[in-house]
Amino acid sequence: MPRAPAIDASTRLLVVAPHPDDESLATGMLIQRCLAEGGSVDVVLLTDGDDNPWPQRWLEKRIIVGAAGRRRWGGRRRREVVAALARLGVGPARLHAMGWHDMQVTTQLRRHYDSSIGQLRAVLTQVRPTLVVIPDLGDRHPDHGAAHVLTRLAMLGTGIPAEVLTYMVHGTEASPPEALIVPDGDAERQRVKTAAVLEHATQMVLSRKRMLGIASRPERFDRPPPPVPVGATLRLPWHPGPWARARLRVVLADGQGARHWTWRKAPLVRDGDDWLLALPPVPGPAFVKLTADLATPWIYDRYGWVCRDPDPIGLVARPPG
C-alpha cells in the first residue's frame, strides 16, 4: 500500500486549483481532515473560470458572451469558490486568486513565465507548505496540466521541503489503483464536501449529475513521476503526421524559462518512428508539450505533457522508499 502523508497540527496544506470547483471536487475531504487535525489550509486559484460560455448563455439568456460578460461571470464564480471554501472551513484570507484567464494557463506559461512563476513563489514563500496538492500532469484539461508544470517549476529553489501529491479530475491516473492514496472515507466530511460542490451553482445548471458524480467518488492522490536519469534528449511519446506537424508548436518549460518553436524549427531528431528533443543542461524537471494556436470547441488536450525529471530539487521532496 502507498504511504499516505501524515496529517496533523503541523500540516500546512496548499491546494492548487486551476478553476473554481476543483478545490472542492478534488480535495474537499482532505481540506476538512487537515483542519480537523489542527493544520492550516491555503488554496491557490489560478483562474476565475471566466471562459465557461454554455452555462453563462443558459443562465443569462444570451448568445454572444464578450469580454465584459466573461469578467462578470468570473466574478460570480469567484464568489462561489469563496462560499464553497467557507463550507469546508477555509476563510477568504486563505484564498490566493491569481486572476489568470480560463483556458489560457498554457498561454500564461508561454508568454508570462517569469511573472507567473513569481506569483506562485510568493504564495509558497508566504505559506511555507508541508504538503502541496496539484493537478496530475496527465489531466486532459489543458489548464490542469499547465498548472502542474507551473507549480512544479515555481517550487524549484525555494528551499521549502514538502511532500507533493497530485489529483486527477479529467482522465485516469497513470499509476495502478493499488498505488494511489485514498486517505478518507468519513461520511460527515463527504456530506460537507457535497454541500461545498453545490455552492458552485453555475456549474450545477448543465453539469449537476457529472459534478456530483465526481464529488461522490473517493478522493485519490498520486505522486509526481519517479526520477529518471538526466539525458541530453527526451524521447517524445507522440507521432503526429505531416499535416499535423505543419500546425504544431513544441513547448519546452524548465527552470530557465519557456521556449517554443514550430515543429520544423524545433531541435528535433528522428529516431526510427520516434522523435527526440534536445534539452539544455538546466537543473530540475523539464516539461514538453505539443500545442496548436487554433481556436476549437474541443477543450481537452490531445497531446498533453511529457516530463524529464532528475533527482528532485527544492520543494519537490518525495518521501523515501
Question: How would you describe this protein?
Answer:
The chain is of the alpha/beta class and 321 residues long. The chain folds into two domains: 12-216, Rossmann fold, CATH 3.40.50; 233-308. Helices cover 35% and strands 20% of the residues. The protein contains nine helices and twelve strands. It has helices at 22-36, 53-60, 67-88, 105-111, 113-127, 142-155, 187-198, 201-216, 242-245; strands at residues 12-17, 40-47, 95-100, 131-135, 163-167, 233-236, 249-254, 257-262, 268-271, 274-278, 286-291, 305-308. A five-stranded parallel β-sheet has the order 3-2-1-4-5, with helices on both faces. The chain has a four-stranded antiparallel β-sheet with strand order 8-7-11-12, covered by helices on one side. The longest helix is centred in the N-terminal third of the chain and has 22 residues, at 67-88. Residues 312-321 have low confidence and may be disordered.
Sequence-ordered SSE layout with sheet pairings:
Layout: E1 12-17, H1 22-36, E2 40-47, H2 53-60, H3 67-88, E3 95-100, H4 105-111, H5 113-127, E4 131-135, H6 142-155, E5 163-167, H7 187-198, H8 201-216, E6 233-236, H9 242-245, E7 249-254, E8 257-262, E9 268-271, E10 274-278, E11 286-291, E12 305-308
Parallel strand pairs: 1-2, 1-4, 2-3, 4-5
Antiparallel strand pairs: 6-10, 7-8, 7-11, 9-10, 11-12
